[in-house]
Amino acid sequence: MNQLHILLVEDNEGDILLTTETLEEGNLTKKISIARDGLEAITLLEKSSLEHQELPDLVLLDINLPKVNGFTVLKYIKDTTSLSHLPVIMLTTSASPDDKIMASEFKASNYLIKPAEIEDFVNAINKIQSVGNIV
Amino acid sequence: MVNAKLMEAINNTISFNIHYRIIKPDGEIRIVNDIGNTIVNAEGKNEIIRGTIQDVTLRKKIEEEILKQKQFTEDILNNIPADIAVFDKNHNYLYLNPKAVSDRNLRDWMIGKNDFDYCKLKGTSTKLATRRRVFFNEAIDTKISRDWVDEHVTNTGETNFIFRRFYPYFEKDELQFVIGYGIDITSRRKTEIELEGMMKSMSRVNKELEQFAFSASHDLQEPLRMVTSFLAQLDKKYGTSLDEKGRTYLNFAVDGAKRMRQMILDLLEYSRIDRLDDFELEEVDLNEIINEIITLHQVKIEEKKAKMLVDNLPKLKIYRTPIRQVFQSFIDNSLKYSKEDTPPEIKITSKENLTNWQFSITDNGIGIRPEYFEKVFVLFQRLHNRDKYTGTGIGLSIAKKIIYNMNGEIWIESQENIGTTFHFTILKNKNESITHSISRR
Lengths: 135, 441
Description:
The complex is a heterodimer.
Chain A: E1 4-9, H1 13-25, E2 29-35, H2 38-50, E3 58-61, H3 70-79, E4 88-92, H4 97-105, E5 110-113, H5 118-131
Parallel strand pairs in A: 1-2, 1-3, 3-4, 4-5
Helix pairs in contact in A: 2-3
Chain B: H1 2-11, E1 16-23, E2 29-40, E3 46-55, H2 57-79, E4 83-87, E5 93-96, H3 104-110, H4 115-122, H5 127-142, E6 146-153, E7 159-171, E8 174-184, H6 186-238, H7 244-272, E9 281-285, H8 286-296, H9 298-303, E10 307-310, E11 315-319, H10 320-336, E12 345-352, E13 356-362, H11 395-405, E14 410-415, E15 419-427
């Protein structure tokens, strides 16, 4: 499996630490960018896209985020031509069916419940790669 | 008196019409009507008296009876504590009782007139009159009585509530008149309003509490997840470098976090029970429900060599998931609190009462002492050491809450070391089809 550049959108420091450690332990990543709220994520992606900088290969997106929530970020990504190809995995504490349905309607690639283990990430990434929209 | 009248007629040669009593030889008193006139001769002298005497005893009696009846009806209408009015088909007054309009002159004036005439006379708003006219026409159109409540603001600024009804009276499909009546229900209405307010605030407080329990348990999960996750990391990365004491501490911390997580999940489940709206009423075969639960507990049943004796249970129109939770809690409980040396025997029976269904779950387990009958239903109350029996102690609280939400009752019969029976009832609903076969399995 290729090591990916991952954008982690997460406001909880504990979760940031846990997720980065899990991804690193699984040898899944070569670079992790972090956005601590929804607006920061949008700004970061917008800037990379406009300045033709390297975009992440994958976005891990929490739902309950300060300023702009995860669904708005997801919708922004999928509605923006230069970003819509980015695979997004929701990573959240919410097991609510409504949230799952909404994520799938907004074209998230997968939906993981925290805390996600290495295997969860591996499976989710494999699934995306089998569809062919990840590097 | 009779003679005087007769003499007057004779002397003045005029006709007479008099009533008087006669006493018959057998002592019976009769009333007669004596009508006649005097006839004079050519000299102008009274020659003869010509007339008839008629027995009018019966007629007099009937007249008296009618008068008495009339008085009786009037007494009722004059003294009844209700406004009564009778209208013709155009809403003109045919009759009003003194309670409706106390001023006699005004009352007489009103006959043949309507509410709008009255408003004009008094110079008052026609708002109530207009509303009344709508109800009046509705009653006539639908041929059934029409009720409503009028609100009158008194001179002192208080609001009085009058319950009113128009009742159209038809004879051979033809409207004869409309009876209208009104009763002062102010005191009752005020109590109702007070009660409505109390109910509203109670349901608001209840909703707030539910919401609180839901949010609290939901939000508590978040920091707890941090505790659990980092304890796991600690164990994974530094577990080997801890000494035995350190590992014991870590184990206690992990165990505590696990239990807290279960309690929070239970609390969430408990707070969700009140949302019965989330479920749909459906025809549920309780035999199916029990079979599902038995399948779910198959391993434990076999492990404990438990015997399940289930009556033929009814089909009820009920919420499926909540009723399954109820039976599951009792069966769980019976399986869990069995005697160590005796395989559990769990009997489930049903009984149809006049207004409800009664279900009983009997086991041969360790039993419950009477002083704990209430306690077992309290959230997170456990009677035993955690090492011996697992669980957070939420099952029976959930069962009780569900049963109460379905307007049922729940109670315990138990003897220590003999066994326990949980009884509960489910209120029957007349509108729901309920079938039950008599045959027993």
